[in-house]
Design goal:
The complex is a heterodimer of chains A (121) and B (686). Helices cover 41% and strands 21% of the residues of chain A. Chain A has 121 residues and is an alpha/beta fold. Chain A has one domain (4-117): Response regulator (Rossmann fold). Chain A has a 5-stranded parallel β-sheet with strand order 2-1-3-4-5, sandwiched between helices. With 686 residues, chain B is an alpha+beta fold. Chain B contains 21 helices and 21 strands. In chain B, a hairpin with a 2-residue loop joins strand 12 (551-559) and strand 13. In chain B, helix 2 (33-52) packs across helix 9 (258-284), helix 3 runs antiparallel to helix 4 (81-99) and helix 14 (403-424) runs antiparallel to helix 18 (515-524). Chain B is globular. The two termini of chain B are 67 Å apart. The chains are: A alpha/beta (121), B alpha+beta (686). At the A-B interface, loops of A face helix 7 of B.
């Protein structure tokens, strides 16, 4: 069965690039524009991996990570967050919140898939 | 790290004394390239180890000496008295660096400055030194694969943020060739166990074309959640290094011996480098005898085994036996105490003693495979000689025997094989006429049967004709003509001294050495030999040897308050069954999960009175190619049994191969299921 990945980003272009790359690689993909939408999408669904941006309106990435970690059934789901080279402080904050790893923007499809392969099979 | 440092210190002082010895000899024989090589290697080891374990001063200093001896090796410098003096003083200097507790640092530094100047004076005398250093640096950067040691010890909480450490190990292993060692020992007992905590860790020896950064990159997400150690072991593929294999054997909970691996890797790397240098030089200068010496040196330094007196091994085995018996007592006590900590200690001690037992055994045993190649060759050559087509198959070549038994069994087996080729298997034409495939087949099969190792040689040849054998025996005056013999007894006549059925003496088997010699040689090593033959179908010669294993892994079972041990090696499956089902079974055959199994109800077979429990356990044991059930009351669990021989009074029976003393001092009998099945089959005749 295909693994399911939830991508959370407020930029539609990013969502699309990620969506395309992942679908091509054989994953089932759900997309959300911010933390709040992600929480709604999660509800009861089996998700194998969450990829989220950190800066988003309504509910940002850090809050989302914390929410997922505190939610029964999702507390051990791997979470990768998208960040840029310069945001080192954010990286630590996200890691402390419970993120599994990160993907540095900008990225090429191969890098995205390589990062994913570190956390799910 | 402290531990590693200590080991390095030990190793370094060893190296220094080796250095002194080499220097003393070199003083007598200043042109000996072997000695120069060995000094170079010592320097190299000191340099490598120093750098790795935080002795940068040693590393830096020996680097200079190494350069100096490298030039000598390349014949760009000649060994001089001054050079020897410097090196002797350097040995002292290195020793004082190794022992420096910080109080003498200044004095050491001063000394080093003086020595450095003297080394430079020698190096400056040679204008090529600069060039040499440059090339060797370029070489250091290397190309192709390198080998690394990687330790991955996740912190307990690692899975809490969604990391699956196994994936990282997979990814790491995916970088190249790898050997992985797993450590389970910190798994707590059940009470302390948290389901998503991580207790295991890994060591990986990896050979990859990727660089160190690629290895570190695997763990980029978990840098803070893991203890990661990455160490380069060598340029090139460490798995191909001569003599490395025993060092890279994986045994869970026992770390790789990094010190030894590094040492060997260093030696070999140095050699490789030396070879490259030597080869380069060969191109420049034609005469070069160095290479040969290097090769010889390589052979000497990669000896990976030692000889030990067999009494030492015997006493080791005795101690291990005692340890296992004591262990059983400890386990029992720990079970009764219901103390989690005590249980944990007992369990980890058991883990260690089990591995100690296996290692001790493996020291004394050699697989039969060792002989098989020789036999294959023998059958091939002989069958060509006599113009027969014969296929040789060896089954159970992994069965291990004591070295002395292997030696003792080799000759009898060769003789049996010769007989099979010569007398047993017919020519292709004869076989065709008898309706058999033209290619004959000889099978050597080895297997464990309780406390015995059985080696059977079977051929599908013409078999033996009892009447013909009888006639021969009478002709030779071995038996009187009026003796009545069964076919089996007649066939057994071949073991009588002076018997040979071959009508014409061939140069293969009929050389005066008969089966009587085979029998004698086998009895010499406390074995027995028997023959079974069916005219037209073939012959099987079976040799049974006492198993030297005095400790076995067994399953402890109970029947009516008596403990028995069944060797784990013969057990296939265990099912729980209602007594009802057994009682109502027909002809000792039971249907379990749709499969029919013959079985023996040991309560009946042993004539044990009393009521059986409602649920009983049926243990499927391997019997030749089949699975046959033996029914016991219940199963206590796995048990390491130290086999003790039974007393004189019990010699006449053979269904118990020995006894073992349990932790509480009671005795459990060890069932030889093979014999049990044989015996009861004969009596029940089903």
């Amino acid at each position: 069965m295909a693994k399911t990945i939830l991508i959370v980003d407020d930029s539609e272009s990013i969502r699309e690039v990620v969506n395309f790359t992942l679908q091509t690689a054989g994953f089932e993909v759900f997309a959300a524009g911010n933390g709040k939408e992600a929480v709604e999408l999660l509800d009861g669904r089996t998700i194998d991996l969450v990829i989220t941006d950190l800066h988003m309106p309504e509910m940002d990435g850090i809050e989302l990570i914390k929410y997922i970690r505190a939610t029964a059934g999702y507390s051990r789901v791997p979470i990768l967050f998208l960040t840029t080279e310069s945001q080192l402080a954010k990286k630590i904050e996200a890691k402390d919140a419970g993120a599994t790893g990160w993907i540095i923007k900008p990225f090429v499809p191969a890098k995205l898939l390589a990062a994913i392969s570190k956390v799910i099979r | 790290m402290d531990n590693f440092q200590k080991k390095f210190l030990d190793e370094a002082s060893d190296l220094v004394s080796q250095l002194e010895q080499a220097l003393l000899t070199l003083e007598q024989d200043m042109d000996n390239p072997e000695l120069v090589d060995s000094i170079f290697r010592i320097m190299h080891s000191l340099k490598g180890g120093g750098g790795m374990f935080g002795f940068d001063n040693i590393s830096n200093y020996t680097h200079r000496l190494e350069n100096m001896y490298d030039l000598v090796r390349q014949k760009k410098l000649k060994v001089t008295r001054e050079m020897l003096d410097i090196t002797f003083e350097s040995a002292d200097h290195i020793t004082s660096m190794l022992n420096d507790d910080g109080s003498k640092t200044d004095a050491i530094k001063k000394n080093e400055e003086i020595l450095n100047k003297r080394i430079e004076a020698i190096l400056d005398g040679d204008s090529m030194s600069v060039v040499v250093t440059a090339t060797s640096d370029a070489e250091d950067k290397g190309h192709g694969a390198s080998s690394y040691y990687v330790k991955v010890k996740p912190y307990e909480h690692i899975q809490r943020n969604g990391t699956n450490p196994l994936l990282l190990i997979d990814e790491l292993v995916g970088l190249g060739k790898a050997k992985v060692n797993i450590f389970y020992s910190s798994i707590p007992d059940f009470e302390g166990f948290v389901y998503d905590d991580t207790y295991i860790w890994w060591e990986v020896i990896l050979c990859t074309e990727q660089d160190e950064d690629a290895i570190k990159d695997v763990f980029i997400f978990v840098e803070d959640d893991c203890e990661i150690v990455v160490k380069k072991l060598a340029d090139g593929d460490i798995f191909t290094f001569q003599g490395i294999e025993p060092l890279l054997q994986c045994s869970h909970d026992f770390p790789f011996d990094l010190e030894k691996i590094t040492k060997l890797a260093d030696t070999i790397s140095a050699l490789e480098k030396a070879k490259t240098a030597a080869a380069a030089q060969e191109a420049a200068k034609e005469e070069n005898k160095g290479d040969e010496h290097i090769k010889k040196f390589a052979k000497e330094s990669s000896i990976s085994g030692i000889r030990v007196a067999s009494e030492k091994i015997d006493s080791l085995m005795n101690l291990v036996s005692e340890l296992i018996t004591t262990q059983a007592g400890l386990n029992l006590y720990a079970d009764r105490e219901k103390n989690a900590e005590l249980t944990r200690i007992a369990e980890s001690l058991e883990n260690i003693s089990r591995q100690l037992r296996d290692t001790a055994f493996s020291i004394t045993l050699i697989p039969i495979d060792y002989l098989v190649t020789r036999f294959r060759r023998l059958v091939r050559d002989l069958s060509r000689e006599v113009g027969k087509e014969i296929e040789f198959e060896a089954k159970g070549a992994e069965v291990e025997l004591d070295k002395s038994l292997i030696e003792g069994i080799s000759e009898p087996l060769m003789h049996i094989l010769r007989n099979s080729v010569d007398h047993g298997i017919e020519t292709a034409a004869e076989r065709k006429a008898a309706g058999k495939p033209p290619t004959g087949k000889i099978t050597l099969q080895a297997y464990y049967s309780g406390s015995q190792v059985v080696i059977a040689v079977t051929d599908d040849g013409q078999g033996m004709n009892p009447d013909k054998i009888k006639r021969k025996a009478i002709e030779k005056g071995l038996i009187s003509p009026d003796v009545q013999l069964s076919d089996k007894e007649a066939v057994d006549l071949i073991f009588m001294p002076g018997f040979s059925t071959s009508e014409k003496v061939t140069n293969i088997s009929g050389r005066g050495v008969g089966m009587d010699v085979v029998k004698r040689k086998v009895s010499d090593i406390r074995g027995t030999v028997s023959v079974a033959s069916e005219p037209g179908e073939g012959t099987t010669i079976t040799i049974s040897l006492p198993l030297t294993l005095s400790i076995i892994d067994g399953m402890l079972v109970r029947i009516a308050d008596v403990d028995y041990i069944i060797p784990l090696s013969v057990i296939d499956t265990i099912f729980a069954v209602e007594h009802e089902k057994i009682a109502s079974s027909f002809q000792n055959v039971i249907n379990i999960e749709g499969v029919q199994y013959p079985f023996y109800y040991l309560r009946d077979e042993f004539a044990i009175p009393g009521d059986p429990p409602e649920r009983e356990e049926i243990i499927m044991v391997k019997y030749e190619d089949r699975k046959i059930g033996v029914v016991v009351d219940n199963i206590t669990g796995e048990y390491q049994a130290v086999l003790k021989p039974l007393g004189k009074l019990y010699r006449s029976q053979d269904i118990f191969s020995g006894a073992s003393i349990l932790g509480d001092g009671t005795v459990a009998l060890v069932l030889d299921t093979h014999k049990v099945i044989n015996k009861f089959t004969r009596y029940n005749d089903i």
